[in-house]
Amino acid sequence: MRYLLLLIAFAACTKSSDTTIALPDGSVTFQLNDHADTMEIPVSILKDSIIVFGIRAALSGTTSSEAHWINFAIDTPAISNYQEQYGNAKLLPSDCYFFYKSLTSISSGSTISDSAALNITQQTRLKPYTTYVLPIRIQSVDGNTEGAGADKVCYYVFKTGAAGSISKEGWSITSYSSASGSNLPAKLIDDNELSTFWTTNTTQAMPQWVIINFGSDITFTAVNYYLPTALKYPTLGGYPTSIEIETSMDGNNWEVKGIFAGNIENNMQTLSTGITTARYLRFTVLSAVIYSSTYKIVSISGIKLLP
């Protein structure tokens, strides 16, 4: 994974300190450039990576003769304040971040703390061209929630760009030819492209097909399908050698977008359809390599659309 370290120093306000034991009120606080309370960060959602933000606190006035501890925290209710002040935005989903380290310290003789570590992850779960916000506050200084830590929230604003694939939100399986055990076609649209998978029934020969309802009209240019890692491609077989892609606006009238020879690399293949708008997609495996030299089945772990 790619690691990116962005160190963001938080300056302190100007109130001076005349004690080395209890810090003055407001002497540790957030202050961004030009007294702003937002930090805007562009985020690519083409692939998942870990982005590590190093967050530091600063002490105004003279250096202290003893260590002080600062704890940062997420303040999710503050998203409403951001929306009132700056307009529409979504709260960054909780599965897309975590505080690897939230507690920092300003050591004796220093005015700058060591770095907290906020990790941003799973960017591909985010929607394209969307503003996400994560409010952060100083929760406590030396265990005290009032006093030195000013009651101010800083908003991390994450703006996404184009997607590597189109969101599967709202997708469902309309019908399918067969399935084996618990390996049902719903596994094709669960955003797990390598582990969960649809397997056809061992007693039915090709062709095998599945129909996906997108829930709305979607414009796309290609279809990706993936093979599960358990298939150990090409060792065990069970993968397509010919695929037909059809689309429909009503689920009844179908247009063939292409018949494609299997050409799998890195457990996936991209099938170019040209610019296509549809509400339904029928993915048909016309032929496949026999699995383990015995079973006429095929296993597909995921289907995606490319914009």
How does this structure look, described?
- With 307 residues, the chain is mainly β.
- Helix content is 3%, strand content 45%.
- It has 1 helix and 18 strands.
- It has one helix at 79-86, and strands spanning 3-9, 38-45, 50-56, 68-74, 90-91, 97-101, 103-106, 116-120, 131-141, 153-163, 172-176, 198-199, 208-226, 240-248, 255-261, 268-288, 299-300, 302-306.
- The strands form 4 sheets. Strands 2, 4, 5, 7, 9 and 10 form a 6-stranded mixed beta sheet that branches. Strands 11, 13, 14, 15, 16 and 18 form a 6-stranded antiparallel beta sheet that branches. Strands 1-3-8-6 form a 4-stranded mixed beta sheet, with no helix packed on it.
- The longest helix has 8 residues, at 79-86.
- The radius of gyration is 26 Å and the shape is elongated.
- Mean pLDDT is 87; it is low at 1-20.
